[in-house]
């Protein structure tokens, strides 16, 4: 009972923070003609309820795809339909075809916020709680509650879901997939990840670790015996899961192709300038292509097809070592670190990335916060900071400042992160030993890492204040957003190197993978 009472307090605190953030502004509030993501979600409810399924993804007189046309997989559309059905019962004006465009009212805001709250409560939060109880390192009730509190107070997800406006379902389904795999329920894990992928196509960021881990397990069991049976079962589960999700769109090939064209808009180019940018447009995304565009206008000198090939090649090469290691030595620990590394490679190097996509890296980082609390806390702070231009646009400065400080305080108090900066604490001992003659340098490593962390936090604090309170020079109107993006990108590149070093030099994988075989 005491175990659950502690966890109940944790959940209530997390829910209180979420609801408090949701009382503020949201994406595009009172800003016609496009408004923002809040209006996009409302519009999808309008479309899915009033139009037949065959028209959901097509441009028609009743469905202008230039005005927040559906560009997510079928499960998002089905979810919108369910929300629309409930909305219709409360107030039909909320989803009336055409006339509800840009609809804003306090009752409707309460309804929309509640739908996110319920999705969090039913899918994401239970997965976090059960995951924390499943960890060997958090076998005591207190440790499990502390771990859950830190994960549930991660400011990036709270601000985007309950401030900006977004549903946590794809990340929640992916987390259920990780949880099922941790219990060796591979078929349920496959179903959960298929649901995640069919809710948002960005879950492709996590697809290779899931694929390589399960394939590696099949290899270890032997592809002439149990391994082949498991592989067949997993393949069948994936096919059936996708078939069920896509069944209404399988009436003809044109339906399927149109949905795919909406999901993967190759013609948009390597990245898109943010809609709120002043002319000339300047990208405010913390990945390598946008950061390089400050110096080299890649989109102007390289064709869209070449951009696609370039981003694919760089992304593939950056995640290849991790995927090979995970396939050859499958372990749950390696799988979780691979989720981080591969998602970060996708975010930094892939095609058509959005600033919110950093959440696809952050949630896996949350899963290893108990193993590397110092580096995980640091990364999660930077990931939230990288979305600062978007958060300021939505009027979420106060919520940003309070949740960032609260999260940092809880992590410092819970994990004593400044005491866990040795090479061993950061999982770098195998790497340090491999350097041989340079091992002595690692004696001062904890002090160096702590100094870099403090410097990073101070820099983020100064840039946050300047972005909010200081007017940039007329010649450089995007100075602060671009600075935020470039500095965040440099952090992410260093984190990518760090996570790859941990994965490739990890001797624990070779021991734990024996249990699988």
UniProtKB/TrEMBL annotation:
Its EC number is 2.4.1.-. Pfam families: Alg6_Alg8 (PF03155). It catalyses: an alpha-D-Man-(1->2)-alpha-D-Man-(1->2)-alpha-D-Man-(1->3)-[alpha-D-Man-(1->2)-alpha-D-Man-(1->3)-[alpha-D-Man-(1->2)-alpha-D-Man-(1->6)]-alpha-D-Man-(1->6)]-beta-D-Man-(1->4)-beta-D-GlcNAc-(1->4)-alpha-D-GlcNAc-diphospho-di-trans,poly-cis-dolichol + a di-trans,poly-cis-dolichyl beta-D-glucosyl phosphate = an alpha-D-Glc-(1->3)-alpha-D-Man-(1->2)-alpha-D-Man-(1->2)-alpha-D-Man-(1->3)-[alpha-D-Man-(1->2)-alpha-D-Man-(1->3)-[alpha-D-Man-(1->2)-alpha-D-Man-(1->6)]-alpha-D-Man-(1->6)]-beta-D-Man-(1->4)-beta-D-GlcNAc-(1->4)-alpha-D-GlcNAc-diphospho-di-trans,poly-cis-dolichol + a di-trans,poly-cis-dolichyl phosphate + H(+). The chain crosses the membrane at residues 110-133, 145-167, 173-197, 227-249, 334-351, 358-385, 397-418, 452-470, 482-505. GO terms for molecular function: dolichyl pyrophosphate Man9GlcNAc2 alpha-1,3-glucosyltransferase activity. Its main location: endoplasmic reticulum. It comes from the Eukaryota. Keywords: Endoplasmic reticulum, Glycosyltransferase, Membrane, Signal, Transferase, Transmembrane, Transmembrane helix. It is found in: Endoplasmic reticulum membrane. One of its GO terms (cellular component) is endoplasmic reticulum membrane. It is a multi-pass membrane protein. Pathway: Protein modification; protein glycosylation. The keyword Endoplasmic reticulum applies. The keyword Transferase applies. Residues 1-24 form the signal peptide. Dolichyl pyrophosphate Man9GlcNAc2 alpha-1,3-glucosyltransferase that operates in the biosynthetic pathway of dolichol-linked oligosaccharides, the glycan precursors employed in protein asparagine (N)-glycosylation. The assembly of dolichol-linked oligosaccharides begins on the cytosolic side of the endoplasmic reticulum membrane and finishes in its lumen. The sequential addition of sugars to dolichol pyrophosphate produces dolichol-linked oligosaccharides containing fourteen sugars, including two GlcNAcs, nine mannoses and three glucoses. Belongs to the ALG6/ALG8 glucosyltransferase family. This is Alpha-1,3-glucosyltransferase. The lineage of its organism: Eukaryota, Metazoa, Chordata, Craniata, Vertebrata. The gene is Alg6.
